[in-house]
Give the backbone structure.
Amino acid sequence: MAPQDLLLAHSGVAKDQVALDVEQATGGDVVVERVLGVGRMARVYVAEQLSLDRRVAVKVLLPRRGRDRRTLTRFRREARAMAGCSHPGIVSVFSVGETARGLPFFVMEYVEGETLEGRLRRRGKLPLQEVRRIVTAVADALTYAHGHGLVHRDVKPGNVLLERGSGRVLLTDFGLAKPVKSVTRVTTLTGTGELMGTPEYLSPEQAERGEVDARSDQYSLAVMAYEMLAGRLPFLGPEPQDYVRQHVEDTPPWLPRIEPTIPLAVSKAVDRGLMKEPGARYGSAEAFGQALSAAAEATAAAEAMPQRAWWGYERQLVQATAIYAGAAWGVLEALTWVLETFDLPMEFRQPALLLVVGGLPLTLALLCYARNRPQPVEA
Ligand SMILES: Nc1ncnc2c1ncn2[C@@H]1O[C@H](COP(=O)(O)OP(=O)(O)O)[C@@H](O)[C@H]1O
Ligand SMILES: [Mg+2]
């Protein structure tokens, strides 16, 4: 934040000029608290909307971006695109406005929590069932957007919000979203313009030919799924061009090699979602979400099954035999020592032997049975 932007507001909290302009543009109804995040194009604040007594988030175009006509158009389109969506997995837009200095902004639902990017930074990789929940939720939101003729084009962890407490998963940042009928051509990295999307999550066709449709979003969602499961991206840059080349040409490392606990079926679903050819992927984000969910569900069901009884029983049998052999050997050694030391007749060994050979295994078998008895299943 530029020092000249810092002004001391009446509340005693340091606010930048843009925040003060937003407050003024809303007639004082929206009171900015602090900056939530700063992206390529915009700054997002958390604020208090006094008239409705609720917390809101306000996204304002960055002053240096406000001079660019194309960016202005895109920002206004973002607000309209989000406002046109009514889905629990997409952040709701409440109102739009413009500051006295001509910077557009919009007021939206505030999601208290963290971004998926933040969670991954904090925890590295995520458990399969958590990945399943997040992927399904984002796939639902994308399916809704696609159904309304909108391709997001920037699906990545920084644009997925995870609400604290409720566990809600919300897709945001429709800054690159575009109304798409079937296929749209956009400027690519190899062209003269700026790269649309984020290199790490870019689909091959988006990177190479600038073609986007719903299947590009599905690809980016699969990249995100891979990252959550493996704790690393399928391709490592470091330069944007490196990502682009690998998305177009390379096969990512096999998931179970990075994380051996990932079930084969789950790995297969992600692999298909990451196919280079859009036609070889799942037909929709929904289909990808369902496939990953079904694979993860099958794993959860297998994990919930009780341990196979024969293995439990066999293991105990081996343990019992070992204990028995040790005990029998010890008892016979001790008996021989007693008979020899006290000069007793060796015939005494006979009944003692019977006791050890017959009685001990019987006791152990009974103990084994008692421990292995099938338990009634809880409802
Ligand atoms: N509705 C919201 N509630 C809470 N935090 C938000 C919200 N919208 C955005 N953010 C935060 O602000 C950051 C930037 O927002 P985003 O819309 O992605 O802007 P950009 O287009 O600059 O990437 C996000 O990564 C997130 O941390
Ligand atoms: Mg963003």
